[in-house]
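Final report, section 2: Outcomes. Of the targets proposed, Hydrolase TatD is the one most frequently requested by collaborating groups, and we therefore present its record in full.
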Amino acid sequence: MFLTDTHCHLNREYFPGGLSELFANAAANDVKRMIFASADEASSREAAELAERQRDAPEIYALAGVHPHEAKNASSDYLSAIEDIAGSERVLAIGEIGLDYFYDISPRGVQRRILAEQIELAAKINKPIVIHVRDAQDKSRGDANAELLAIMRECGAERAGGVVHCFSGNADEARRALEMGFYLSFAGPVTYPKNKILREIAMNAPIEKILCETDSPYLAPQGHRGKPNEPALVRCVYEYLSMLKALPLEEFAEIVKKNGERAFRIK
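The predicted structure is given below as tokens.
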């Protein structure tokens, strides 16, 4: 069986003791491919360098991009740096990029500008995008999902395509993302008992548009909550979603593997 963790953070700051144990745990759980997500220029370089070195057991690929939390810290020439990093065949997409109105770590205007610039870059270099989006706790204070979709349309995100990572929106937001051709990636929260709406979205989403991730070291699945997450635990997400889809795990895993290869254009 071949499982992919399509979104994880493998930075040294999270795993200072190295990745040997993490890789061994992944192998024991059939996790054979990981996509290392980035948050800024430095983490994009770190991800790309690991992806260049780690080509098997497990395969590592990378994202390159500036997260909305880091938008305020982007240098004046950040875009050319991201484009340079993304020139590697091991860097699959521009991400994670988007809007986060929950924490508002970066001013919203800055978030919107950095998002638009990176979508346009992705379309220019023919790479998909990986989206992070989180609404304000009270949507009357800002609807990040609606603004995100408007920016995506304005900047030609359909030309780039991509993934809404760790999907946590509502059914209408899922529908609009799917209509734009995007994939929905589900993480540990889909296994949480109170997330009935998210499970219904996963059940109703076209199976050919579903991906699985951990977003490790965050959001450990049910049964592991309160502990650091790691790519091995993406198996819990696969098991849960295969149950929702009423498919044998092996069959579901093969479908999701092919989905990931289409979404990220892995040859």
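The chain has one domain: 3-263.
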